[in-house]
Design goal:
The protein is α+β, with helices and mostly antiparallel strands. The protein is built from 9 helices and 9 strands. It starts with 16 loop residues before the first strand and ends in an 8-residue tail after the last helix. The relative contact order is 0.13.
Length: 279
């Protein structure tokens, strides 16, 4: 059980010990059973506010998350105070307990399904995010325009979308899985959030040796198959969403398996009649 949250004046920045560090922030322990996530200077105010709002919304909806305690301004930068969540990532558990991989991926799909049950009033529109990423991405103008027309014809929605739901953003605690890092959250149709998770599991940051790549592809299929059994209606117009989300990905992040990702993207583009991306 969490203790009393430390006050801003009680956080002694010079004595903070870093527990973890990533591209956007570092996490430090403060007080009794609390952590502070201190964002790097390049991270926008909008992104920090979105993480606070989305995690709070998810907690209010009954989703297992670290509910934000307070938004802070420290000497080191903007920060969010959270209760400390103890447990390894699902990625680590998949590595050390491979015989339970199928069960964990089934639970992951069910967890994602519960998130998608939640409405997300006030969050940014995923459609707008995809449109911006396509327009400012590297695809040529003709492909961009064709993709935007395709996007305009796809359904909208108001569901809570994590935006970065993968095995490194799920902590495995004694009481169950907990979703962290809500900075890419949005509202919209569910299918593109499922597609993005599939892409993150196959082509996101991480090891890329031959054996690991086969395991990543299998895990993505296993997750998607389990989700489809739970909610087949959430797999509407998958080919169209794959093409759109894949093109947006080109701006949003580099693929660690570029050749495999471009083959995946070009299959999606060809399936919906759009021009292909040159390798």
């Amino acid at each position: 059980m969490a203790g009393t949250p430390p006050t801003l004046s009680g956080i002694v920045e010079d004595n903070l010990a870093t527990l973890a560090s990533g591209a956007s922030a570092r996490v430090c322990r403060v007080g009794e059973r609390f952590v502070v996530k201190i964002f790097h200077a390049a991270v926008s105010e909008e992104m920090i506010d979105r993480e606070f709002a989305a995690a709070t919304l998810a907690a209010d909806c009954g989703i297992a998350v670290a509910r934000p305690v307070e938004s802070l301004r420290l000497r080191a930068g903007r920060a969010i105070l959270y209760p400390e969540i103890e447990g390894p990532t699902m990625m680590r558990q998949l590595r050390v307990r491979p015989l339970r991989s199928g069960a964990m991926l089934r639970d992951m799909a069910a967890f994602h399904r519960r998130i998608h049950d939640c409405p997300a009033p006030g969050l940014r529109s995923l459609r707008d995010v995809l449109r911006t990423d396509i327009v400012y991405g590297p695809a040529d103008a003709a492909l961009q325009q064709a993709a935007l027309r395709l996007l305009d014809g796809l359904p909208d929605g108001d569901r809570l979308l994590h935006g970065d739901f993968h095995v490194k953003n799920i902590l495995m605690t004694d009481s169950g899985a907990v979703a962290i890092d809500w900075s890419k959250a949005a509202q919209g149709a569910v299918t593109p959030d499922i597609v993005r998770t599939e892409m993150l599991m196959r082509f996101g940051e991480g090891p890329q040796d031959w054996l690991t790549n086969r395991a990543r592809d299998w895990a993505a299929r296993c997750y998607a198959d389990h989700y489809r059994r739970l909610a087949p209606g959430h797999f509407a117009q998958v080919a169209e969403w794959r093409a759109v989300v894949g093109l947006a990905w080109l701006r949003a992040r580099a693929s660690v398996r570029r050749k495999a990702f471009l083959a995946y993207l070009n299959r999606a583009l060809a399936e919906v009649g759009l021009p292909l991306i040159a390798g």
